[in-house]
Amino acid sequence: MVLVEPFARMATNPAFLIQVIWEGFVSGVLYALIALGFVLIFKASGVFNFAQGIMVVFAALTLVGLHEAGVPAWVAVALALVVMYVLAVGVERIVLRPLVNQPDIILLMATIGLTRVLVGFGELVFGGEPKVMIASELGIPSGVWRIPLFDRVVVIKLIDLTAAIVAIVMVGGLAFFFSRTRIGRALRAVADDHQAALSVGISLEQIWVIVWFAAGLVALVTGIMWGARSDVSFALEIIALKALPVLILGGFTSVPGAIVGGLIIGIGEKIGEIYWGRLIGGGIESWLAYMIALLFLLFRPQGLFGEKIIERV
Amino acid sequence: MFYREAGQFKTGYADDMAVFPIRQDRIGIAVILAIAYVAVPMFGSPFFVSTIMIPMLILTMAAIGLNILTGYAGLISLGTGAFMGVGAYACFKLATAFPDVNVLVWVLASGFFSAAVGVVFGLPSLRIKGLYLAVATLAAQFFLQWCFVRVGWLTNYSSSGSIEAARRSLLGVQITGPGASETARYLCVLTLLVALTWIASNIVRGRIGRKWMMVRDMDIAAELMGVRLLPTKLLAFAVSSYFCGVAGAMLLFFHYGSMESIAFNIELSFQVLFMVIIGGLGSMIGSYLGAGFIAALPVVIKFAPQILGIELPSAVVDQVTVMIIGGLIIFFLIVEPHGFARLWQIGKQKLRVWPFPY
């Protein structure tokens, strides 16, 4: 029953299946964007940045907050980027520099502490209630496309389409930046070996600031896109936790892995929720991603594209 | 001068292996127990006992549990909250199904259910460790929390979805449920904690604890020396989850009295993790100090402005509390990554040579 019925439903209504896959694809793109922020920082400093989720919220809140204070939309974007830069510098100075060479768990804890600071500070400055993202001011279209398919209609929101396109463009840009530019090469050197990079004259501090700023940029874009689909609120922080299974799937150090992992998790959990979820009580979205990741770990512990550095016992 | 072990000779192996080999430590622990058992219930205000002491002691129990897993066996877990939940729900089911048996028995027994669940989610630990394992335990966190909400049997199909501690008594004194005096609840919690701490400290000093530390420090070397990794790691998960489960059951029966599944969320897991890290990984005393710090800090921050005469809206106080806790965590990690337990050690060393600096 549980095994047959969902497939029967998929077969009898393919348009709905495509709709579900599209929804999963879009949330997968957004998971992938958050995971991308993690990967950037993990690659360059070995820090598992738990604060990426709250950085998304914080960036989006800054943007909306500035616009509410009367700043024009695009200027607000620029100012939000400045705030993210200041944050990156501050994190590097205050948190990371004194903690060089500490074990993983200490660095992870430090970013959890950072999460708390940002949550408290964000609520203090912007208030705890959800805010509406300034989507139309930023020129994000709000209509829908109705595509007739298999005698039914597939609805595609233009916001979602924009989000997907922006994500693709940004990932392409970052890939170009990291593989073709001077700073990108320096970053990969730092990721390989901190000491060797230092000894050939690469400034570790500078690279960390750049990487955290890049993560802040990704956070801002993610915040705008996610905020345009729902509201901007601290509840978004929980989506950061969804990025963890994405990372497991894709590998902690792989940019393409983050994207493929994000799509697998996004589509997988939507299909699971819609077709199987109601058979066992609903709401399985909260843990399905982790279970997929856990099963995956048993077969390929380093992830789809990860380097084989995971310590095996 | 007062803390010097010169002249305290050991004449047998038993003396050598004692938990407190130094006389001053034995006196100190006796004084602390006397204060905890006599002075606190006699002189502590009801607010102090029920709002600070009881949750602090319960969270200490959870911190000891997580410290066994993370500090001694080196396995990171973010699922503590869910394991505590398993204990609470198991205790609720047992206490409602068998009302004649003393509730303390069920509190202790509920830990075994938590241990069983912990072992199941510990299974991946053979293949993965570190941050990957942390994600595996997050799977436990979210899956179990979902179970608490969706499986009606766990809450006896209560319409509100919450579980409640029934009225139960021990030796004619009511210890759980509405109307139980805070002194009675406090003494139950304290006794359970002291007993289980004694058991835990003996486990970690013995053969099993040594094995855990070997696995933590270098698992491959441990395996070469004949430690079988899977049973050792699973035992760590089992013992750790047992303590967390008992802590969860105590949280329901002796502190809140009525709880919803949301209480066992990831925030609780983080809170316990903070305690372990700030207190000191791999140290029993650290679990106490860390739990005391994290549990008492919000209360202190809440009342400090009032004492100083500053009036702040409660929302602002909450936000500032969150910020200060986050900041303090970072501060402690930078200044003393080995936690309060290390400070305690340094203090003892200073006392040993006092009044001389070396």
Automatic annotation (TrEMBL), chain A:
Cross-referenced CDD domains: TM_PBP1_LivH_like (cd06582)
TM region positions: 20-40, 47-67, 73-96, 105-126, 154-178, 207-226, 246-267, 279-299
Any one GO BP annotation for this protein: amino acid transport
Keyword Transmembrane in record: yes
Domain of life of the native organism: Bacteria
Coiled-coil portions: none
Membrane topology: Multi-pass membrane protein
Recorded GO CC terms: plasma membrane
Subcellular location, principal: membrane
The entry's keywords: Amino-acid transport, Cell membrane, Membrane, Transmembrane, Transmembrane helix, Transport
Record's subcellular location: Cell membrane
One Pfam family from the record: BPD_transp_2
GO MF annotation terms: transmembrane transporter activity
PANTHER family: ABC TRANSPORTER PERMEASE PROTEIN, BRANCHED-CHAIN AMINO ACID TRANSPORT SYSTEM PERMEASE PROTEIN LIVH
Family from the record: Belongs to the binding-protein-dependent transport system permease family. LivHM subfamily.
Protein name as catalogued: Branched-chain amino acid ABC transporter permease
Species assigned in the record: Prosthecodimorpha staleyi
Higher taxonomy: Bacteria, Pseudomonadati, Pseudomonadota, Alphaproteobacteria, Hyphomicrobiales
UniProtKB/TrEMBL annotation, chain B:
A Pfam family it matches: BPD_transp_2
Annotated GO CC locations: plasma membrane
Alphabetized UniProt keyword annotations: Cell membrane, Membrane, Transmembrane, Transmembrane helix
Localization terms from the record: Cell membrane
Stored InterPro entries: ABC_transp_permease, LivM-like
Ranges that cross the membrane: 27-49, 56-83, 103-123, 130-153, 184-204, 234-256, 262-281, 288-308, 320-341
GO molecular function: branched-chain amino acid transmembrane transporter activity
Protein name per Swiss-Prot or TrEMBL: Branched-chain amino acid ABC transporter permease
